[in-house]
Amino acid sequence: MRRKKILCATLIIAGLSTMFALKTYAAEASMPNGTVVIGAKAFDLAYANDPKNLDEIKAALVVGGSVYVKDFTAVWIDNTSAKTVSATSIPSVIYKGPTGTLSNYAVGDILNDTTTSLEVISIE
């Protein structure tokens, strides 16, 4: 019985360690190169340049906010001044990928954690 408890505790610790490692990786993920941020929305450049998405892009521009572009070398550029800016200048946004998939990014170009927590009901 003691071995079972030790094994179970070891498995739980290993599982939690893996979960924290995954959370650390997710926190370091950033928007792909070739992204435009318009206010609180971000778009893959291919999506933004597709004529069928023009109304959506225009609507984001009308709502307003700063416009930033992440070039293909991972450098953020302020569209107004054409100067490079730190990723910490990027607001939280909802990013729309080239196929229309959505992702949430926190301030500073950091992918929000989408993992769910686990609840341990019993060890025995």
Structural account:
The chain is of the alpha+beta class and 124 residues long. It folds into 2 domains: 29 residues; 77 residues, no CATH class. Helix content is 34%, strand content 23%. It is built from 3 helices and 8 strands. It has an 8-stranded mixed beta sheet. The N and C termini lie close together (9 Å). About 15% of the residues have low confidence.
Summarize the entry for a quick read.
The chain has helices at residues 2-28, 45-49, 54-63, and strands at 35-38, 41-44, 67-70, 76-78, 84-85, 93-96, 102-106, 110-111. The chain is an alpha+beta fold and 124 residues long.
Taken from the alpha-carbon principal axes, the silhouette is globular
Q: Count structural domains.
A: 2
Beta-strand content: 15-25%
The count of β-strands is: 8
Radius of gyration: 20 Å
Structural class: alpha+beta
Could you report the average pLDDT, rounded to the nearest whole number? 79
Unreliable stretches, pLDDT < 50, 5 or more residues? Answer: 7-11, 14-27
Please summarize the sheet with the most strands.
8 strands, mixed
Helix count equals 3
Strand order of the largest sheet: 5-4-3-1-2-6-7-8
Percent in helix: 25-40%
Rounded to the nearest angstrom, the distance between the terminal CA atoms is 9 Å
| SSE pattern | HEEHHEEEEEE
Please specify the SSE layout and strand pairing:
Elements: H1 2-28, E1 35-38, E2 41-44, H2 45-49, H3 54-63, E3 67-70, E4 76-78, E5 84-85, E6 93-96, E7 102-106, E8 110-111
Parallel strand pairs: 2-6
Antiparallel strand pairs: 1-2, 1-3, 3-4, 4-5, 6-7, 7-8
Signal peptide: 1-26
Keywords: Signal
